[in-house]
Design brief:
By secondary structure, the protein is α+β, with helices and mostly antiparallel strands. Helix content is 33%, strand content 22%. It folds into three domains: 230 residues, Pseudouridine synthase; 82 residues, Orthogonal Bundle (Hypothetical Protein Yqey, Chain: A, domain1), CATH 1.10.1510; 114 residues, 2-Layer Sandwich (Pseudouridine synthase). The longest helix is centred in the middle third of the chain and has 25 residues.
């Protein structure tokens, strides 16, 4: 089955299903893509109403952190938090989250805020952002508290009949259910959907070429971005004039402008320019490179005919919590002697196969899969020691493991409808939940099989 070029550039080289796609477009409107965060205690951050039960033991009595529900529409998570922090006269580091949410979407998530009263939080007034105070908690939020995300999606502009759409969705859902979920690829937004360069920036950082990394981030244009941004990047690429670029770059390119301000004063200090960015964003570059390598490993595993729900000798395997979350910090290698026992545990849902996120602390798999991974690393020119980034030690890539398969929970097709009978155009409404770290677009990609993921809203 033909895989779009942009998918291959991100290491996603295969489909897990051979079913026919429905096509269509997601995110035609931000309201078509709704994300509601679910915490490990079962609490869901809802778009429209307050929590129905106590969240993480929140109480009205004063404690170190104020827990709130943040609802945002069409906002990048980091930029939304910066605006909230500014209104509360706090540093952005005093606001904590369990996970980053989609920008082009309507999302609800939990946040904790230090040194903030219920009254102050309720006064935050930013366009398309709502803050709903819940109560006070003793600990700040972190990914530890995140179970997953519930998605409500509308796919529009499907050039097929309602019956065909429903049939194809059912076939794909059945095929994925047979193997226990979707391949746990990192989705398009991990790399920058309209300008997928985050992993390339990360690779340049790992190679110690901060000048190349900075110019990729600042000056590599994309045909899919806004013309003003594309033209400003193109001019910087040809002139290397940081002062002029600061005047040309649109205001919405906030992070690029932070770097440019530094480079105007210190045009050769590319390490310092990266240090101006939020630490989490700095780390995302290296993490995106790890994600790209993982995607390549997983693609090759599928292409080589290895199962996603059965281990081979030499594979990493991880235990699974009662909640369904893989315990990626508790792993072992399946040996020739233990592989049958391991596969019984996988079949029972107590274990999952995992692949490495290569880093300082994480080596490739063993056995046949390990040979494939080492060959890919050699092709990419990357060694594990590259992940020790001495210039910006906070962004060093420790590495880890990631399950190759992630379950799809509560999948429902709520209905299909015809919106343009004369053009045989329909739409589909569906919902599902994915565990933390997994991407809705990876599931939607299997259902839609878009010819052009960018035009399809990915």
């Amino acid at each position: 089955m033909l895989v779009p070029r942009i998918d291959k550039l991100l290491g996603i080289e295969v489909y897990a299903t051979e079913t026919a796609g429905i096509g269509g477009v997601i995110r035609e409107s931000v309201e078509d893509f709704v994300v509601e965060e679910v915490l490990v205690d079962g609490s869901k951050a809802k778009i429209e109403k307050a929590a129905e039960k106590t969240v993480l033991g929140a109480s009205p009595s004063m404690q170190p952190y104020l827990l709130c529900v943040l609802v945002k529409r069409n906002w990048d998570t980091f930029i939304a938090l910066r605006n909230i922090a500014k209104q509360l006269d706090l540093s952005q580091g005093q606001i904590h989250i369990a996970g980053i949410k989609d920008a082009k979407a309507v999302t609800a998530q939990h946040i904790t805020v230090e040194n903030c009263s219920l009254e102050d939080a309720a006064k935050v007034n930013v366009k398309d952002i709502k803050i709903r105070p819940v109560g006070y908690v003793h600990d700040k939020l972190s990914p530890y508290y995140l179970l997953g995300n519930h998605f409500t999606i509308r796919i529009k502009a499907i050039k097929r009949s309602e019956s065909t759409v429903a049939k194809r969705i059912a076939e794909t859902a059945s095929a994925l259910g047979a193997v226990g979920g979707i391949p746990n690829f990192f989705g398009h937004q991990r790399f920058g959907t309209t300008r997928p360069i985050t992993h390339l920036v990360g690779k340049a950082i790992l190679e110690g070429d901060f000048e190349e990394a900075a110019l990729l981030f600042l000056a590599k244009p994309s045909v899919h971005e806004h013309p003003a941004s594309r033209n400003a990047r193109g001019e910087l690429q040809s002139t290397r004039d940081f002062k002029q670029a600061l005047q040309n770059f649109p205001r919405q390119l906030r992070f690029e402008r932070l770097m440019l301000r530094h480079l105007v004063d210190k045009p050769d200090d590319f390490v310092g320019a990266f240090a101006r960015l939020p630490v989490k964003l700095q780390a995302l570059f290296v993490q995106a490179c790890q994600s790209y390598l993982f995607n390549r490993f997983l693609s090759e595993r599928i292409k080589s005919g290895f199962s996603l729900n059965r281990a081979e000798a030499g594979d990493y395997v991880v235990n699974v919590e009662r909640s369904g979350l893989p315990m990626v910090n508790v792993a072992k290698v399946a040996s020739a002697e233990t592989v049958m026992e391991v596969n019984e545990s996988i079949k029972a849902g107590r274990m999952r196969v995992a692949l490495p996120l290569i880093g300082i602390k994480q080596k490739p798999s063993q056995g046949a899969m390990g040979q494939i991974e080492r060959q890919i690393l050699e092709e990419e020119g990357i060694r594990t020691e590259n992940f020790r980034v001495n210039e910006i030690s906070r962004v060093a890539g420790r590495g880890g493991l990631r399950a190759v398969l992630t379950p799809v929970q509560d999948f429902k097709l709520h209905g299909t409808s015809t919106v343009a009978p004369d053009q045989n155009e329909s739409q589909a409404d569906l919902s599902f939940m994915l565990l933390r770290g997994s991407y809705a677009t990876v599931l939607l990609r299997e259902i839609m099989k878009p010819e052009n993921p960018i035009k399809a809203g990915f």
